[in-house]
Amino acid sequence: xxxxxxxxxxxxxxxxxxxxxxxxxxxxxxxxxxxxxxxxxxxxxxxxxxxxxxxxxxxxxxxxxxxxxxxxxxxxxxxxxxxxxxxxxxxxxxxxxxxxxxxxxxxxxxxxxxxxxxxxxxxxxxxxxxxxxxxxxxxxxxxxxxxxxxxxxxxxxxxxxxxxxxxxxxxxxxxxxxxxxxxxxxxxxxxxxxxxxxxxxxxxxxxxxxxxxxxxxxxxxxxxxxxxxxxxxxxxxxxxxxxxxxxxxxxxxxxxxxxxxxxxxxxxxxxxxxxxxxxxxxxxxxxxxxxxxxxxxxxxxxxxxxxxxxxxxxxxxxxxxxxxxxxxxxxxxxxxxxxxxxxxxxxxxxxxxxxxxxxxxxxxxxxxxxxxxxxxxxxxxxxxxxxxxxxxxxxxxxxxxxxxxxxxxxxxxxxxxxxxxxxxxxxxxxxxxxxxxx
Length: 438
Prior knowledge:
- By secondary structure, the chain is α/β, with parallel strands linked by helices.
- The chain has two domains: 11-108 and 308-396, NAD(P)-binding Rossmann-like Domain (Rossmann fold), CATH 3.40.50; 111-304, FAD/NAD(P)-binding domain.
- It is built from 16 helices and 18 strands.
- It has a six-stranded parallel sheet.
């Protein structure tokens, strides 16, 4: 790989410390040794989607954090948490310091269904529910009330499966996970006994992974119920991975009831037409053939996709809810060469966490291909961090994150687990070494 110009090392700012951002930092330091990478994140803790999007019972996947930790411990990589772009530092100020800036802020809001009643109390975005059970500091620490016997989860993707699984599995099985105590208590108090997964299309159109689907079908104390008629018109020629999904679902349709205390119902060809209720959710109206059927649910969880949100100072495609790019370069940015994007904020909420590694590699290949242009930019190294240090009273560096990490591990000693999340802003900053009077 071409070496940076004699004026100094390549300097890159990464905005977003989730897997996409950390993979970018990793790829940069491996493909172009000596590159200095500063990773900024709005939260006091790194790892983004891995920490706040992966369900707590998927601990094997969460173990990926140890790999990401090694990246931010690299001597040429620095982590700065509790730093918000647009509030504490501007894009213009980053570009004045770094040869390149890579935006990897993900997608953090939900896609609306566009049907009557979806804003009723008891209709909850999957983004909100996932953030709650993952202990995201932006969520209200008060429990989400799971005080109705039946709930619907709208969507046929892995997030919908996660939501349904957390709602219906025995909460005692979550004790060894990193779920906060307040969430565990709320799940223990849950009255939900029937969960309905609702999709507008057929079995061959599900976006589940086979591993997650099989896991759902093996939950203790749960009967799964699928109408065999849903498979009557499934095409015989399908891609191999789709065939596996369809056959797994078809096997569910032949199961006999065991009288289990909880039930999972899967409804295909059932487009939601309205969330029913006056003061709160009282049902979900779905289309059935030429008619409409009402499911007697008291809670609705909307899981039909994540959307990106505008990043201050960065071009934004309001229609597609992404940062517009061509060959990983931001379109319409402040400089001709120097602004890039990776991860969900660039391509939309598609793929799994591993998808972000290849995406980061491709982004870095383009960035390093632009090296002559980047090194020709006039920058003043160190100015951005100086500004952040002067503006952010509680700036969380690697030492602060390590202290927070240690605090969570200590909390885990009270349960048979490796860690329990600290999940309020105040407590996270306190654990990172800042007093309430700092």
